[in-house]
Amino acid sequence: MSAAKLASVSPSIQICRIMRPDDANIVGNVHGGTILKMIEEAGCIIGTRHCNSQPGDRCVAALARVERTDFLHPMFIGEVAHVSAEITYTSKHSVEVQVNVLAENILTGAKKVTNKATLWYVPFSLQDVDKIVDVPPMEYSRPEHEDEGKKRYEAQKLERLETKERNGEVMTSVPLPDRHMKEAYTVGFSQSSLIHLVGPSDCTLLGFVHGGVTMKLMDEVAGIVAARHCKTNIVTASVDAINFHRKIKKGCVITVSGRMTFTSNKSMEIEVFVDSDPLVEAEKGKYRAVTAFFTFISLDKDNRPLAIPPLKLEGEEEQKRFEEGKTRYLQNKAKRLADKERHQ
């Protein structure tokens, strides 16, 4: 089959692996970050494969954005995760990949859909890591599929620009001795940070961090914030759009910081930032690389939802973030109800 023919086909792949104890928390729930990393791996494979399906610069597809992702059902140790990915839209410089995750109980044969995600990738040349190469166009089974994809592309592009306006804010971590001085259920009490030195195993062929590695670290920090607030078993319920503003290079030190922004009766929203500090090229300065909102729920020993302790607010800035979080919560709730009615 010719390269031109390959570029016209909407490709798909599937990867699978069994969930092991180091993929899960202490009660056996697979970490949301583990699932997000598998989703990104599948997206990166199919995106890179498609972008190299025609003559020209060899390239690697870099993650630019993940749309809102809901965790529909929990996954447990011993289950097999089936991750399927398909390219659904291409623009001149980006690829949209839709991913579905299925959990299989290999003892009973029972299967359940745990996640559906949409990811956007941008291909960078292996010869010049700052050069974005052209994406081979794909053929669509129906013209309306291309029109719908273009609308999604324009919407995510606009939202990425809006998110960049928040990109300058730098969060300061709360030292451990001060935490004992903070009142329980306040933002400062649960606020947490994680520091990670980026090594070769974290990176793509270009020497930049895999998006899945970053998302896993973000989920870990968000989980620590949620656990400190509730002091119970907590699991990822959803992730709002994750925007990758700038690449993170091998050798950088990244600080992943999370803080509680909103609580409802059964859920809590955590804002997570990733700041990168290039040690070797210190003159470039520290910069904000990734931002996202994670939503967690609290579970009892039978995996039933528990009530969330209300967040105690201190100051106008925390009140403002709480109201913004409440707006997102109500919008997402209305969208879920609308989707449910549409599928009935």
Number of strands: 12
Helix residue percentage: 25-40%
Give me the Rg, rounded. Answer: 20 Å
- The biggest beta sheet, please? 6 strands, antiparallel, barrel
- The helix/strand order is HEHEEEEEHHHEHEEEEEH
Straight-line distance between termini: 42 Å
Q: Numbering strands along the chain, what is their spatial order in the largest sheet?
A: 2-6-3-8-12-9
What count of helical segments does DSSP give?
7
Classification by helices and strands: alpha+beta
Overall pLDDT score: 90
Taken as a percent bin, the fraction of beta residues is 25-35%
Subcellular location: Cytoplasm
InterPro entries: Cytosol_ACT, HOTDOG_ACOT, HotDog_dom_sf, Thioestr_dom
Main location: cytoplasm
EC number: 3.1.2.2
Structure, described:
The protein is α+β, with helices and mostly antiparallel strands and 344 residues long. It is 30% helix and 31% strand. It has seven helices and twelve strands. The chain has helices at 3-8, 32-51, 143-163, 176-179, 187-190, 211-230, 316-342; strands at residues 12-18, 59-66, 69-71, 80-90, 95-104, 111-125, 192-197, 233-239, 242-244, 252-263, 268-278, 287-299. Strands 2-6-3-8-12-9 form a six-stranded antiparallel β-barrel. Strand 11 and strand 12 (287-299) form a beta hairpin. Helix 2 packs antiparallel against helix 6. The longest helix has 27 residues, at 316-342. The radius of gyration is 20 Å and the shape is globular. It starts with a helix and ends with a helix.
